[in-house]
Amino acid sequence: MSHTIRDGEKLLARVRRLKGQMEAVERALEAEKPCGEVLQLLASIRGALNGLTGEVMQAHLHEHVLHAGDEVERAHAAEELAAALRSYIR
What we know:
This protein is mainly α and 90 residues long. The protein has helices spanning 3-6, 8-30, 35-66, 71-88.
């Protein structure tokens, strides 16, 4: 069973919190809140998204790279992680 399935409820809860944070930004903009408040909300979202991304990457590394069934699976999983990291740091 994949880690995203096994940890699905926990991951979905984090995504739902992110969604709520995005809605808070929308409300702040609609209410014409000061830019400092909006920036703080955005920084919170970025931190939460980084945390979620790190958690999924760590689980991928542990399950699909470190404990891969064979070298072919390990190489494929490592390349998936490398591609995600390239996109992430852009």
